[in-house]
Prior knowledge:
The protein has 12 helices and 18 strands. It is α/β, with parallel strands linked by helices.
Amino acid sequence: MKASIVTMGCKVNQFESTAMLEMLKADGYELSPPENVDLVVLNTCAVTGRAESEAISLLRRLRRQNPQAKLIGLGCLAQINPERLEGLCDLILGQSQKSALTKFIGLPVGTALVSSQPGPIGDLGDPRPRRTRALHKIQDGCDAFCSYCAVPMARGPSRSFGPDRVLSGLESYLDMGVREVVLTGIHLGLWGRDLQPGRDLSVLLREIDRAMGPRLSGLRIRLSSLEPLEVPLALEAIYGFNWLAPHLHAPIQSGSDRILGRMGRPYSRDQALGILLDVKASMPDLNLGTDLLIGFPGESDDDFEETLSLAEALPLGYLHVFPFSPRPGTKASRLEDQISPALKRARVARLKNLDKAKRAAFLESQVGRWRPAIVENSHHRSGRLKVLTDNYIPALLPEGCRISPGAAVEVMLSAPRNPFGLAEASCD
């Protein structure tokens, strides 16, 4: 029997798919691409209306590619709108069913099994990573209810693994020989608030340092994402622990106070700017990234220019720029003053040009520096090995360089000399 899992969306979905692949292997399945298998699982995303449409299109394509396979739709879209998947797949499963996927594969065609309550955080174990970096899920769910986001409906309230479970996972990955682990969650900065007694992320990071001690010299830990007001929780660790990667991703979404208010974001433009400027001033080599959501309903030219000017003012190493796509069931989807697709495209294009400039400027600041890095797999277009530095710069090693993927190395960065715009790295 052969099986395949196709994954959409966030790092938490990626982690959960890796864990479900391990379950399928343990159950006797051979893992294979989806074109010619007996079982196909689509782990869906529902963060935007566009993501929902892409999930539907993907299900139809998977069915056309392999009409004989049993097709399972699960995850976020299945959780909040299972009716949308009816007739498109043979079995519909919600979030709570992921942790015991193999128990449900044999259910009759047409079954939809979706728990109305999220229950405790599902423990999918510590799956062997498919790449050189391991994702370690330590938190799930969100309490924020931003006006554009369906994640609290799809994932439920914030739930955390306790420190002992987090530590056992890190130990497990070290024993596997993994050299980099990304701590990830749906809203990572909420970690620990639901525990008894309540804790916060800074407590966890100090506990990791205390409990693992010298073993951390063989491991680099990266934080996946923190909201702007949560960044100070991690600052002590970022400054003081050399095992924590000098890289922060802090999604701001907008630089307009008016739009931030409409989004339900709990900070002002000046708050976000002040926090992130302080972080960068304290750690010049830190790579700081953000998300920007462009074309939110009611976003005027002035609102957009405020976002653009904030992005220009911030010492960013990169931007992730997304056009607003209404998610049915959210407050923002019901707002009347939607922005035209053409105007959204034009605004997104301006910010993507800024992203290119910010990436180039940060790389230039690192040229000639030695940085610790992890060797990744071969770059798919050049065939050369790729590395990722501790501060999140991808670079290509010289042709003929023979280092095993997953190895920790020291590299010197130099300016791009390739058609892909990637930095060059030494092989010493």
